[in-house]
Prior knowledge:
With 308 residues, this protein is of the alpha/beta class.
Amino acid sequence: MINKLVEKIKQTHAPIVVGLDPMLNYIPEHIQKAAFAECGETLEGAAEAIWQYNKGIVDATYDLIPAVKPQIAMYEQFGIEGLKAFKKTVDYCKSKDLVVIGDIKRGDIGSTSAAYAVGHLGSVQVGSKSYVPFDEDFVTVNPYLGSDGVKPFIEVCKENKKGLFILVKTSNPSSGEFQDQLIDGRPLYELVGEKVAEWGQDHMGDDYSYIGAVVGATYPEMGKVLRKVMPKSFILVPGYGAQGGKGADLVHFFNEDGLGAIVNSSRGIIAAYKQEKYASIGAENYADAARQAVLDMIADIDGALQNR
């Protein structure tokens, strides 16, 4: 799957991923009204609103981008109906030939970790039949329980040619409370990065490993170090836009070939119509605002890479 992601990035010239992280207050009133008229002010109604909102954004942007990243918590908050919307979103994105990165941040051990991996990346046996539950192409994994929590995912990835993005240095302000702690004079996140590179050596695509890393855009100098530590790992970069990251911060995350990283923007794209810059487009045309935000993000990152 890493080969497909790299090829899609080359085709679109857009090393970006749209985070499909819907909150009800992002969803324009006309979509909510229609969903509630059909399903009532219920969890089912909320899920229907999310699904229609996502579909509009995907329809407006799929030709510009290589990938999407739905954050499962935004769906889980609406219970089973929300998870149905998550699955519909995954399937619809794949029907548009988008790579789907399931942002699930699972971190457990043994059979529990294996069950998470099977549910999101593999297939489950039910009697004589086999089913693919969620079927993302990549998922995010928390490695801070050690290899016991990661290796079950790697095994499922090998079987199904899927991939991982492992949390190494996250974009949130308090990440340093643990991730920056020094061990023999080196920060913990650097040691985790070395482990990611090690895991990836045995799971290579044509040029990059199926085992990637998550490194926040809000820490560009750390990204520079980690790029060298993990030369064959794709880096998923959150923190662009709404969290403060911009194109000029991102150049160190990329290799000299212009590849090696994919940058996420969530509410900066999906709720772009709420920004002053795109307000004139209007809530009715929220998807057009999302498309323009994607085009602006592509231009920002491309300009930064051209001038590095």
